[in-house]
Amino acid sequence: MDYVAFMQVTAGHGVRAEVTRLKEQGKFLESHAFQATALELAEGFAERIHQEIRD
Questions:
Q1: Whole-angstrom Cα distance, residue 48 to residue 55?
Q2: Fewer CB within 10 Å of terminal CB in the chain, N or C?
Q3: Would you write out the chain's pLDDT as a tens digit for each of its 55 residues?
């Protein structure tokens, strides 16, 4: 039997707003670092969930 799994992960509510706020303050490095960290965290969550599904 085949299965199809759909998942949605996030690093948390408000990441985009915080990134925008940092950019508006001219803190481009902090903005980029924050967004990159959130992206990596979400991808890590997705990998963990995928591992649970495979097991």
A1: 11
A2: N
A3: 888 888 888 888 999 999 999 999 999 999 999 999 999 999 999 999 999 988 8
Distance CA 11, CA 32 (A): 15
Tell me the C-alpha distance between 43 and 35, whole Å.
12
Q: What are phi and psi of 10, to 5 degrees?
A: -150, 155
What single-letter amino acid sits at 11? A
As given in the structure block, the two tokens for residue 28 are 């481009």
* CA gap 7, 50 in Å, rounded: 9
> How many Cβ atoms sit within 10 Å of the Cβ of residue 31?
18
* Verdict on whether the full-model pTM lies above 0.85: no
